[in-house]
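Internal tracking record. Fields below are filled automatically when a chain is submitted to the structure queue. Please do not edit lines marked as system-generated. If the sequence contains nonstandard residues, flag them in the REMARKS field before resubmitting.
Queue: standard
Priority: normal
Entity type: single polypeptide chain
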Amino acid sequence: MRVAVILGSVREGRLGQAVTDWFLTTAAALDPGLDLDVVDLAELDLPLVLPGWGGTPSPEAAAALADVSPRLAAADAFVVVTPEYNHSFPAVLKNLIDWHLREWQAKPVGFVSYGGLGGGLRAVEQLRLVFAELHAVTVRDSVSLHGPWSGLGEDGVPRDAEVCAGAAKGMLGQLTWWARALRTARAERPYAG
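SYSTEM-GENERATED OUTPUT FOLLOWS
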C-alpha cells in the first residue's frame, strides 16, 4: 500500500517536520506494510500561475511536476500533514492540489493537523471541501495535535503519545480500508470522474 504523506508547511521554523516524523514512525509501527513517500512542499518549487485551460505548463512548472506528479499518481492513498494558518490551510498546499486532478480521483485522503486550541481542525474541514470537488474520499477520523508548541516534546513526540497514536491507528485503519476498496474498484472499472 503506497501512501503519499504530504508535508504542507513551508514556514521557517516549522513544526511540520517534527509532526511528520512522529507520524511516519507511528504509521510504520502500526502497519509495517505501508510504503510511505514524503512529499515535502518546502522542496518543491511549483509556480503560482497555472496555465489556461488546455494550455501547457511552463518549463519551470513542468520540471517541478516531473518529480511530484508521478509520485501522487502512484499513491493508493494520501495523508496530508497540515498546520492551521488564520483558520485555514497553507496556500502552498492549495497550489499543489490545484496543479493536479486525476492524481486525487477515487483515492482516500487522511489528515494529521496541528495548531492552536483547535488543533488544525478548521484547516481539515476546508480541505475536505476541496478534496470532495476533486473526487477524492476523505476519511472521517483524523489526527489533531492541539497546541503543538506545548503538546510536542523537544524530540517531536506528542506529550500525550498514547492518545495521538490511538488517533493515528483509527485514521490509518479507515485510510487503508478505503485505499484497498478503491484500488480494487479502479482496477475493475476505471474511474471516469
